[in-house]
Amino acid sequence: MREYDSYKDSGIEWLGKVPVHWSEKRLKELATIFGGKDYKHIVSDDGLYDVIGSGGSFEKATEYLYNKESVLLGRKGTIDKPLYVNRAFWAVDTMYFTKIPSYTHGRYFFYLCTTIEFGYYKYGSALPSMTQGDLNRILFFTPALKEQTAIAQYLDTKTQVIDKKVTLLEKKIGYYKLLRKSIINETVTKGLDKTVKLKDSGIDWIGQIPEHWEVIRLKEIGNIETSSVNKKIEEDEDLVSLVNYIDVYNNPNKEIWNRDDYMQVSANIKQIQSKVLQQGDVLFTPSSETIEDIGVSSVVMENLKNTLYSYHVLRLKFNKKIYLNFKKYMLNNDFVQYYFSHSATGTTRKILGLNTFYNLKVLVPPSIEEQTEIATYLDHKTQTIDKIVGNIQTQINTLKELRKTLINDVVTGKIKVVE
To answer: How far, in Å, CA of 112 to CA of 102, rounded?
Structure first.
């Protein structure tokens, strides 16, 4: 990579040296910031203009707030993801938008804004925020318009190549995730022996299953239990570890183990005696904002030391012997999810009642040996796929870091891309 012929000290520790001919500019000298506005009164399915928040366009509007090239910056919430827009739009009230003068190249200004250390300027911890004044005072070193244009064109070309590679890799991950689900779905409904006779399961969305398998309601194999343990610490109670909703929901392996980083709360003696988690227990998420991800479960893989479960999850304690690892797949597949998603009630938040859980029909091979074979097969298959996905994700992360470094090095003058 080429460097400029001569540099000068920027006076900014993190920036270091910059090309000698670049000028010191505050953000307010490169563009003018305006606040977004509430959008509810102009939302319409027939709208022609995008309503834009920190995540991009999410609604259509009948009016626009600005109809020229702009860089949008977060005011509250997600503040570290500048957006480039070159069409008529409406910016929401948690966003700023900019009017870019003729002496600033729009795409260059966008790349410049992606290098801002937003964490240094933000205020508020629960809801990170940026003031217009702080943004206006941010210092840059910039070249003249001709060089800005060349930098923007170079970065557009290079980042498009990187983005295309990332998109292809993300599609690969999507394919492997679908493959993973299809293998689980096929195996938990048909088994491994493709020569066995089949019978109608009596469940419309499942169809035929091996003739010797059992269709059992959850209430026939265990009891669903609630909890009253919350996220508080009371002086007259003992400290315990707590498995929360997120520990069950955000758990790709569907396994709960002893850990040192569970939330610390307090519980009374009765709660400790009755709600401690034991090997073989299954925890469910009985509520969700959407029906697509309700009823997620994870299996407790070992006796947990002084660890209870929170009131946000349900526990299934088995009275029928079922192989530990088989439970993961028996209760986490598209057919179980279909049942839960079609049984959930509620408007703003979807909920599953106890009777819904009790009436869930699951498919169970009668012998522990067959359950073990199926679980072992699926463990091997899913672990292989997960490893492939992990390797692809590492490639994606490397490309994204390369993209970020490239932009930073070019717009700060570490790399020369112009003649």
So the answer is: 16
